[in-house]
Design a protein that fits this description.
Oligomer: single chain
Number of helices: 3
Largest sheet: 2 strands, parallel
Distance between the termini: 30 Å
Strand content: 15-25%
Shape: flat
Order of helices and strands: HEHEH
Structural class: alpha+beta
């Protein structure tokens, strides 16, 4: 898989888990991105530190 087709590493931080799952479904299906979801800022920081994302959308 080339960099053009593998997609981005995305970290979604949202206190509403349903919104995070919706974003995850759209990005993974439409763009072949790898999406991780966090439900609060602390969890987001921990995930970002473990494996820095390419993108963290602000919603």
């Amino acid at each position: 898989m080339t960099d053009e087709t593998k997609g981005c590493q995305v970290l979604v931080i949202d206190d509403e888990p349903e919104m995070g799952k919706l974003i995850e479904l759209v990005l993974e299906h439409g763009r072949n991105d790898t999406v991780r979801c966090a439900v609060n800022g602390l969890q987001g920081l921990i995930l970002a530190e473990q494996d820095p994302p390419d993108l963290t959308p602000s919603i």
